[in-house]
Design goal:
Number of domains: 1
Number of strands: 6
Oligomer: single chain
Strand order of the largest sheet: 1-4
Length: about 120
């Protein structure tokens, strides 16, 4: 299974190029805010009706499915151009069927197998 994580301080986010690639190549839907500057402001975007992410200048929500095949393909195709403003996105591959969680500290992420913990 391929999972997208961020490997630098700042946090997971997609570039405008990546968002536009998902719109053009994969049919993701957006609501664009056309204000008076040159930046595209994504006010809402979704692949399915039940998944909505909000942000300014980039998709930076943790709710996005990091294993989504469209998202993985986008990062594979665009490489570093898929990185949001403070992101360094990497594709990590783990065995299928593993229950995992994304650990994060100051935006730097890693993948850990789920387990029980207390206190």
């Amino acid at each position: 299974m391929k999972i997208i994580i961020n490997k630098c301080y700042g946090g997971f986010s997609l570039s405008q190029e990546a968002i536009l690639w998902l719109i053009k190549n994969k049919g993701w839907k957006t609501a664009l805010d056309d204000s008076n500057d040159d930046s595209i402001k994504i006010t809402e975007w979704t692949k399915k009706d039940d998944i909505k992410c909000f942000g300014r200048y980039s998709a930076s929500e943790y709710r996005i499915d990091r294993t989504d095949k469209d998202l993985v393909e986008c990062v594979e195709v665009l490489g570093n151009e898929a990185n949001g403003r403070y992101a360094n996105l990497k594709i990590i591959e783990i065995p299928d069927g593993i229950e995992y969680e994304i650990d994060e500290y100051d935006g730097v992420e890693s993948i850990a197998e789920k387990h029980r913990s207390w206190g």
